Amino acid sequence: MIFNKIVKWAVASMLVVSFHGSLFAEGDDDKVGSAAFKFLNIQTDAHGAALGGLAAQASGASALFWNPAGIAGSEGMGFTAGMTQWLVETQVMNAGFVMPMMGGAVGLSLVSVNYGDIMRSGWAGTTEFVFEPNQDGAFQASDMSLQFSYGKNLSDKFSLGGTAKMISQSIDDVTISGLAFDIGTQFNTGYRGIRMGAVISNFGADIESDAGEDISYEEYPPMSLPMTFSFGVNGEAIPGLNAGLNVLKQADMAQEFIVNAEYNISLASLRFSYNLNNPQQDMSVGAGVNLGGISANFAMTLTQHFDSVMRFGIGYSF
Questions:
Q1: What is the tally of structural domains in the chain?
Q2: Which of 265, 244, 245 is nearest to 257 (CA)?
Q3: Which residues span the domain enclosing 71?
């Protein structure tokens, strides 16, 4: 009786989150470039990036970057760290730690983006706007997100989790900061390993900013967060092979459908995903090994106009 109520409530919750995501997906083509803090949409975890997302099957410390509900089942402490060689020589670093606490599990994580040195441009004593290397030296830009997560199992099949993020962006000597939040659910059907997960991430109030004294605009509009909805379903297709589908909707981008597969061979895993809607980054491949609680993962995402995006990650659970 109680179990049936929990299952019904779990399914209802998943449907509510999914319905919210479908509403959120309306009217996407006219919003490109309308969201700030876009670094929050970069996939940093090598394991999940190779599969196009881990909304349904995220677990352990890596779940901190996909679905906070996934940390709920952590029976011990776990650590993960990784590096992403993003586009145009941009580097993204991530690290996370999770442990059982407060009737569930808590986690701390960090995402840091370094854009490297950027050449200045400006007026060079002429009437023309020019772009000259080292004209006024170089400046740097960086982004950071410090995150606290909590996840709890509400039954042996359903979990719920949330994340609060302190986010900041810096360009030269100008910095803006604010708060963002994630909320996610996971549901294990108990049949053929089929799991479902849904996440609404990067939501919160618009962030006010100061354009600075050097800007002539009287008013600089508040910036919207890159709110994102993701839904995933994953299960065992044949022994050793898991397959699934991820649905991804970013506030300023069209909805994406991503199919994936992961084949487990003893201690190793081979991974593949294909994005049906995004020709700019349509395919990812990856591999991982797990030995004695120590894991190492690699992923490569092929892009149409830039070099491939490379991701590396390590993890340890104890």
A1: 1
A2: 245
A3: 2-317
Spell 173-205 as b/e; 16+ CB within 10 A means b.
eeebebebbbbbbbbbeeeeebbbbbbbbbbbe
How far, in Å, CA of 201 to CA of 20, rounded?
12
pLDDT tens for residues 6-18?
455 555 555 555 5
Report how far Cα 39 is from the mean position of its chain's Cα atoms.
Answer: 9
CATH number at 124 reads: 2.40.160.60
- Write out the two tokens for 108: 């701390």
Contact assessment for residue 279 and residue 265, using Cβ atoms and an 8 Å cutoff: no
CA pseudo-torsion sign 100, 166, 42, 189: positive
**pLDDT tens sequence across 75-97:** 999 999 999 999 888 999 999 99
- For residue 261, what are the contacts with CB-CB under 8 A and spacing of at least 6? 237, 241, 242, 243, 244, 271, 272, 273
- The pTM (predicted TM-score) of the whole model is 0.86
